[in-house]
Write a structure and sequence with these properties.
One of its GO terms (molecular function) is kinase activity. Keywords: Kinase, Transferase. This is Uridine kinase. It comes from Streptomyces bacillaris. By secondary structure, this protein is α/β, with parallel strands linked by helices. 34% of the residues lie in helices and 18% in strands. It is built from six helices and seven strands. Strand 3 and strand 4 form a beta hairpin. Helix 4 packs across helix 5.
Length: 234
Amino acid sequence: MLDTNRRPGWSPARVNASHCCSVSSSSPPLPTRVVLLAGPSGSGKSVLAARTGLPVLRLDDFYKEHHDPTLPRVPGSTDIDWDSADSWDADAAVAAIAELCRTGRTNVPVYDIATSSRTGTEGFRIERSPLFVAEGIFAADIVARCQELGLLADALCLRGRPSTTFRRRLVRDLREGRKSVPFLLRRGWRLMRDERRIVARQTALGAHPCGKEEALGRFAAAAAGRCRRVTVPE
């Protein structure tokens, strides 16, 4: 996550200035909007979000806690299905995004993935930035709600090769000690087999599927004030 406790020094140049249009100093200030960045676990969302130079809200911090009785299970297993949107608090995530767009600040949970629990809360500020990123594997699930509330600048689904995503995800999860090794391997193989279906689902929810370079171009367009109305299911 970027350091959100200092004024963000974002610039459209950080996301490819060739895609941006000039805005005169006499133009009215742009309303604050969010770019939702979805994609399979391990697809590189966090790295890409950091490259933009924009404030980044980590949607994974809105996971439910391990003792929540509504947590879903992997079919045929006792494992909690952390890749199901039912393991995530969408209402709290949307409320935080709305408050950021309205006031430039909010309080967010501090979530420990290794213990599947919230360890506290912390303040998150975007100051006067007219654009910020909200990234996470469930970002596509709130595209329709953010658009209905007038908060959405764009919605993207980062995609790549399933084998590359598998390797990147496993290395990260082992390095961070997120879960036990057997759990990570079971989850990794399942997600690699399902990756194309995951991308298709997020696309159907309104997130535009793209690689990193196209995503950066769309971030630049959003930074220049060109918000895109996405097509979402009824």
